[in-house]
Structure formats: structure tokens, C-alpha cells
């Protein structure tokens, strides 16, 4: 088993009067894609936002390569090599596709070889390179949001429901892109509801319920055990396709 790149230990998050995360514990193995699954409202998005520093952990440790980053602000977390694709995409609608990617390239000009790699899976971005991002379709905006997070090499990419509301053909492109991204050694933590995506891409899995991790293991084991799926998620993953 590869060593863990990211580890959460006893993480609590409170947002105003609400206590959302109740001692979250799980690890993200280096070089793997870890699926974070659970019912709606289980705390998955809060977990990603807490890792990213958008919401501050009220207790616990968030370790990146052994360093506790729980109290760092978001720019500092990003500076350590963590990319983030929020569910709301977070693109700048008034800027062009090119300008959106330029803003995400913290280390200087866009790398031509990396762009060609991105265009291989997200051809629409090349086609609409000089158009405002607000003119893109929902699927194309998601492509841009993902491309912003990977336009430069990252140690870790956090992705929140990338296939939500997308057509099957676009989902297949996303699966292929993330599969290739894994081959580069990039570690990925993904929240996803589409079982086909989870089964196709996931190496390891953590399942949340009521702000806690209730199961962690290999994705293949969960995919093969419908009784475990029913116990953890309330229905078989096959029924969620």
C-alpha cells in the first residue's frame, strides 16, 4: 500500500451554531483516487472545504505529508500544491477560457504541453479559448473548472461532484481525464454520487454519515458487496447509476 499523502484525525467543523463534522478520521493514499461517499448532508462538501481552509477546523489535525495544515488559510493551502474543484465550479464568467486558466497558473505562463493534454479530453476549451466562460454550457464549465485545478501539476486535487447534471458522453470524457491524471502520480480526493464513476476511478473509499467516517477501505470491496452498500448508504450503489 502506498503511504498516505493526506490524513485527517479527529476533525471537527462548526459553522455558526451548527456542528457539521464530528471527529472525521480517514487517510488519502499517495497516488490514488479516494472516493468520499455518503448520503446528502453527511458532511462530504464540508470535509473538502475544511481541508482547503475555506472553513476552519475547530478541532483535530489535517496533515499533508505529515504537516498539520488545519489552521492555514486557503491561499497557503493552495500554495502547498492542493487544487480544488468546488461543486459550484468557481469559474469567472466574465473572463475568457484562456484568462481563467491564466489565473490558475500561479507559476507563470501556461505550459503548452500541459494544455495539449487538457485539450485532448476537453476539446471544447480549445474551441472556445477566447470566449467568455459564462457562454459555456454546464458541462463545458465543469471541464474548465477541472482544468483550472490541474493546469499545473498538483500534489492533491479535491473534486466535489464533478459529474452532477452532466450528459453521459461528457462523463465518459471526465472518467478518461481523471484516469490519465492518476497515471501522472496526482493524488485525488473526490466526492461523487455516480456509481459508474466511483467504481471506474476509485482505488480507496471513505463513507460518511452524520459528520463521521463510518467505513474506509478499498473501492473494489465496497462495489462487490451490496449488503455493505445497503448498510452504509441505504441502497445498493448499482441502483444509483
Descriptive key words:
four-stranded antiparallel sheet, globular, 36% helix, single chain, six-stranded mixed sheet, 241 residues, 27% strand, 10 helices, alpha/beta
Look at the structure and give the mean pLDDT: 92
Number of helices: 10
Global outline: globular
Roughly what fraction of the amino acids lie in strands?
25-35%
State the distance separating the first and last CA atoms: 29 Å
Order of SSEs: EEEHEEHEHHHHEHEHEEHH
Major beta-sheet overview: 6 strands, mixed
Percent of residues in helices = 25-40%
Return residue spans where pLDDT drops below 50 for at least 5 consecutive residues. none
Number of strands: 10
Helix-strand makeup class: alpha/beta
Radius of gyration in whole Å, from Cα?
Answer: 17 Å
Strand order of the largest sheet: 6-7-8-3-9-10
